[in-house]
Amino acid sequence: MKCSNIVKNCLILTALSGCATSSDFANPAWRPFKDIDGSVREISFYSWKVLETKDGKHVERDSHVAYLAKPLGENLKAKQKIGEMYPLGQAGENSAMATIFLLDGKSLNIYDEPAVKALAQAKTFDFYEFGGMRLSHARFTAKKAICRDFKGKTGVDLLMTTNYYPRNSFTDFYTALINVNLRRDNAPKEIGYTPSFTGSDTTLQHELKTEEAKQGKNIALLNIQEKASILFNIICK
């Protein structure tokens, strides 16, 4: 299987579930994860070649897309598109992650200024992050507008889950459910953190629970810092 350069260099999906191409589309490798509503869902990733018109010319580029599984009955699943993924982070240092910024059901390119402006003025948007044997879904919610509330007294509510997969397991994982209010000039006063464990492999479950007991709360704080940095450094800078 040949992955595109973007996947190899910065999306790091090979560290989560591998790089699927259009030839694999009929038989996806579904990865389970626990979502922010507590349900366990399944996700898979694909790479495509697409044609775009730029300066009057047709240009081919790579498109990397995430899909959710939609049950259609016993052993049958349809693919529900989440959106196109874009790298976020230091690609040259291989530390970027595959991300989706989802506004009103549409995936936005975070490198387009109008997209950033739309997120700044929105009341809510969803953020997905994939790679490094973890998978996150975060929802940012404001009463008036994301950046207005983030810079004001109201703050922005963050609800998120991050799923961690030991040895890149497709069956066993640990989920951190986090809810917190983010404000630019104030540290969070209260942090909601609830760990949960999915799977039945005795060895993997022991590893997960041992690691969570040692590092769970610290990892949750790092997660909050990472998501707050999206507002600080990208959307509301």
TrEMBL record:
According to UniProt, the name of this protein is DUF8095 domain-containing protein
Where the record annotates domain DUF8095, the positions are 96-234
Q: Which residues form the signal peptide?
A: 1-26
User: What keyword terms does UniProt attach to this protein?
Assistant: Signal
* Pfam family membership, one: DUF8095
Work out whether the entry's keyword set contains Signal: yes
**Organism field:** Actinobacillus succinogenes (strain ATCC 55618 / DSM 22257 / CCUG 43843 / 130Z)
Say if the entry is tagged with keyword Nuclease: no
Its domain of life reads: Bacteria
